[in-house]
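ok trying again, last paste got cut off:
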Amino acid sequence: MLPPDARFCHKCGKPQFESTQPEPEEAPLEPVRAETVAAPLPADVSFGNPHAVRIGLLVAFLSFFTSVLASPVALLPIVCLLGAGFLSVYLYRRRTGQRLSPRGGARMGWMTGLFAFIMLLVVFTAAVLAISDPEMCSRLVEEMRARGAGANAEAVVEAFRSPSGVFQVVVMFFVIFTLFPALGGLLGAKLLDRSRG
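nice, full thing came through this time. structure:
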């Protein structure tokens, strides 16, 4: 015999009555709110960022030639390199609409300087190869003396003919061509951020 509140038979499993389970209550629908879509995070300034690479190459090309043209005037090439870093940050912000942190600005300037250094390295390598020819070397010394270099002409040419002299010049150019654009990019990121805010 089954107890009166048994739902099913313990022997055969037959239900004793139909269970009426209450249907679950549906939660009231909340109105859909239009959420503001956040602006996409800025892409990292690196060699994998095509905008940064294109802008860096363009500004490096400009800064390389302005630095070479400005080389007779003391400190003007340094100003050109600082300006190159600043200009690369400005163009990057204008092109992408993304602001750069000071670190990102320094990285943008450094990339620009690195591209300019590579261009300089190509020209410098061609000059070192030309100086290795004795006839070309003597013509260069004569031309430098004609411009007033005097006794320093031979010392300068000899420095370019020795491996240690070439290495020192390359390291010096690398530091100058990457440090000053990085500083310009850092200043550009700070100043442009301040002017917008």
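cool. The chain has a mean pLDDT of 81. Residues 50-196 form one domain.
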